[in-house]
Sequence to fold (869 residues):
Amino acid sequence: MRLQRSRKVPDWHEYLACRRESTEHAILADFFAGADLSPDLLISEAPLMALDLETTGLDPRKAEIVSIGLVPFSLSRIHLPKRRYWVVRPHRVLEPASVTLHHITHADIQGAPRIEEVMPEVLEIMTGHLPVVHYRRIERPFLDVAARSTWGEELSFPVIDTMSLEARIHRQSLVARFKRWIGRPPASIRLHDSRLRYGLPHYHGHHAVVDSLATAELLQAQIAGHYSPDTPISMLWS
Amino acid sequence: MQAELLEISQHLGRFPPFEGLPEALLDEVAAQVQVSYFKAGTQILELDAENHEFGYIRSGAVEVTRRNGGLYDRLGEGDIFGHFGLMRNHRVRFPAKAMEDTLVYFIPEAMFHRLCDLDEDFADFVEVDRPRLESAVESRKRENDMLATRVRKLVTFAPLMVKASASVQQAACQISDAQGSAVLVLDEPGDRPRYTVEDDEGKLWQVVGILTDSDFRTRVVAEGLSPDTAVSEIVERKLIAIQSDESVQEAMLCMLSNNIHHLPVMQRRSPVGMLHLSDVVRHETQSSLYLVNSIFHQTSIESLAQLAPDVHTAVIRMVHDGADSHMIGMALSAIGRSFMRRLLELAEEELGPPPVAYCFMALGSIARNEQTVVTDQDNALVLSDDFDPALHDDYFMLMARRVSDGLAACGYAYCKGDIMATNPRWRQPLSVWKRYFSEWIEQPSAEGLLHSSIFFDLDPVQGEDSLVEALQDLVSSMAPQHPRFLAAMARNALGRKPPLGFFRTFVMEKDGKHNNSINLKRRGTAPMVDLIRVHALACGSRAQNSFERLDDIDRTQLLASGVSDQLRYAMEFLSMSRIRHQVIDLENEQEPDNNIEPENVTSEERHHLKDAFQTLSNAQKFLKFRYPMTR
Fold:
């Protein structure tokens, strides 16, 4: 009996090699070269980079990025002093609803650069790191849209998604499925609720750096609780 | 402002030693934080590993152990660890382990040293043992106006002085002319160089005493003496004076403990003024001095008992004024003694003059001048050896009963162990008392030791002081000669162990178990007093007060340098915490007790108490080593 559904993971090696050949831009070429981490690399040795975006909405075709947070880390230390943070001026007018969500106001974005201006630097800093996000369906598609408008090329890369790790443990495990079968509501796998299960403190979210930090802490806790430092990254990425 | 760091800097700012830091500095700390998560059971710092940062617990719990694996401390949210090594050789001295899933903020060494340089409170806090407590105690002192105010500020006129050869009439005229109420008496230089003064012509005199308005009434007019009588014939050659740079509080205590209304003020060797009770009262209305004054004006037990609530008011006042435990202990003891004295005076009025000389003796906390609001009466009667039980005991039995019942009416509970003068065993002539004391010292027994801790704090209250002083002499000369007795006392002093400290809202015991309240007397001040007493007895000290005993101990090489200061600060902090919590109870109209509940303790106080308990525990270890227990 299989306890877990098999996960369909893209062949990152092939994708990255292909993109490295096809790209016309040096920054992208470097990024794809740097992103090609060996699947056998142990998580304890992987150069990790927590990544979080605040956006004006959830649909990358309509919404835009307003801020980007990056925090490099390893299993033993989260290097907050090396954090990076950008506020980005969207092309469309900010809607009041999104302002209440991420607290970035019209005043904050006044004079901030466009996404196309910061993308080279963001990508440069991410180069060589394995990004860690909570809910991969935001960061990757939004950065893809940003790359298309910056360079006219698509962008993808492997990530570790703490939400899907949490789902594996709390949604797809035999115990979780049994609980659901007897009518228990599924465990919440949102960032804040996931953190509580590991005794992590409450942070006021929706700042890209704070959420990056929160995500990095969550991954440290997940590895300590359910995996081992010797887990190869291919077991974790998606 | 960096919004992303607010989360961290705000959290840091809620806990010592960060809470006092300016915001800019807090932001600087937050910007340097590196974070790490530890699953329960994971080692955070390994013994002797190299270390260049210290940890701040953001969530979870950490157990810190000693080199030998014994529990050193348990830490929770907001506590710091790993800083000891940064001040030594960058090796982990106290290994740390996560007890629960724990999130740690690591702060680099350079920031640590910068904080120590920039912020004195931070430096004091991380410096182990003494200085942290010291600064807590001292900063509290700095806040107190009464302590800061010097006696000389209250002095307005130069004192009146009269030669001992003058007549009482001349003296009275001099007082009247100056509209004063007392005059200092000068005589030929003698054995008290401290009170020697030089007059305008360069001749030396000695201030020998003081004559007050009431002396003219009681010693001259009432006695029917002639106005020509020389001052030297009526002046009592006993001068109590104070130096001008002492605090007003000190002056007040001096007046309190001697029950005097006039206090000459000396600057070095010359009298510069005269302080009257009313000067101090004007400065300090509602004071305990005022209370003592009214105790002596009461004419019945009933009216004395009505003053009981004023004792509480006086304590509350003193605590709010920032008085230290020594002062509060002195004042409360002075008040207690005043009740006893007045009750004895009333008893003598009722029963007639005593048939033989006696001294009413205070024992325990009141003898040490360390009384608090929660107290019972420990007292005894030492009688002259002329005492004949068949003839005289009825008198002293009644006297003892009057005092004991009176004290009970005034809020001093009867002694549960029956150590009161009403017990015939504790109402004996001096020779019997000497035998008791000698036996306790020469043949230490369980019962004798039980008594020793109470009876070896003893002080005269009323009557013939020399009777009690004879016992003090006996103890101070015999005790140092009897190592077996000292060892037994030391063993007794080790019976009550301080708790390890606090962990979250619990008091932690050595075995790692928790308690939700702590008896600060039983676990703190009492073992401290016991311990100091053993050293004091070994030194042949005659002091009764723990702080004064430490002064005597200091004059010997008994304790390593700095240790007595540590004990002083720990004793002060434990005592003040106890008093402050009693005052909180009083203000909430609850029965005050010696218990404090950790949830009512601020995080700062928690840290200081932890240090104080640690100091006590170290001192107990030394005691064990210094007085080996050979059974």
